[in-house]
From TrEMBL:
E.C. designation(s): 1.14.19.1
The species this protein was found in: Xiphophorus maculatus
Cellular compartments annotated: Endoplasmic reticulum membrane
Gene Ontology MF annotations: iron ion binding; palmitoyl-CoA 9-desaturase activity; stearoyl-CoA 9-desaturase activity
Any coiled-coil regions, as ranges: none
Ranges for region Disordered: 1-20
Keyword DNA-binding found: no
Lipid metabolism is among the record's keywords: yes
Membrane-topology descriptor: Multi-pass membrane protein
Biased segments, Basic and acidic residues type: 1-13
InterPro entries reported for this sequence: Acyl-CoA_DS, FA_desaturase_dom, FADS-1_CS
Cofactor: Fe(2+)
Broad class of where this protein is predominantly found: endoplasmic reticulum
The name this protein goes by in its record: stearoyl-CoA 9-desaturase
Amino acid sequence: MTETRIHRADKQQNGDAMAETSTVDDVFDDTYREKEGKKPPRILVWRNIILMGLLHIGALYGLVLIPSASWLTLGWTAVCYMISALGVTAGAHRLWSHRSYKASVPLRVFLALGNSMAFQNDIYEWARDHRVHHKYSETDADPHNAKRGFFFSHIGWLLVRKHPDVIEKGQKLELGDLRADRVVMFQRRNYKLSVVLLCFLVPTLVPWYFWGESLAVAYFVPGLLRYTVVLNASWLVNSAAHMWGNRPYDKTINPRENPLVAISAIGEGFHNYHHTFPFDYATSEFGCKINITTAFINLMCVLGLANDRKRVSRDTIAARIQRTGDSSYKSG
């Protein structure tokens, strides 16, 4: 049984879990076939290779400077990490890619700012590529196809030109919901400026101006080191969480449950569940457990800034475990 057919069956069993605004663009398409013959040549993007190399060298220097940083600066680094991570997890991923809950304008603005602080492409491009990833997971049309190895799915996909199928399939997606969101499109139009301000200047200038931290420490610790760690935490979802862990919900797909990735990516490591039920706002059966992003969305709902969280019924989950799980399931 294919993932597409299983998803359709689950939708019939649990209609309340799928809102009218949910998209089939994040459901695996089993009709896609990779083209036969020789694969297209791998074209290196030297600008990205050089910039990523310099970034990681700067992050290593940031590690050296940690003992020189004040406690206020270390605390500010943690705050910047959390804001930028939420901009990806609660924002670009769960809100805009999967439409798994609804957010008010103030919350969408906050998440867009956090997304710019994370500097992982603008929301529109991030969501488009992520929907392609789900729809054509681990095929030539997947931007970070894990079948091409750990390095490629972790960072290598950013260092080469996209496979033609990735571009072709991305152009065919229905992205009207993203184009209709004024916050998304404003960020897209002003993305470069927002990245300079929020990813680099704000993390650096706040500790320098308000408590006299040296510019070097302020730039390399809450700036480059924080940015690089957030990047790698996000990339681990594409690499490690597609390779290591159990598959209690669907053993026919590669995404895994990986608690270590969930910790670093504030809740995004329950990947076998997420690829089985991509419309679930919690990306996990177990709610807030090792899942800061879910706790954040819940808090936003309490504050009246978010609503309409999509969830999968326990009966649907149990039926799926029995039907396609790898027998490793443990409740709680």
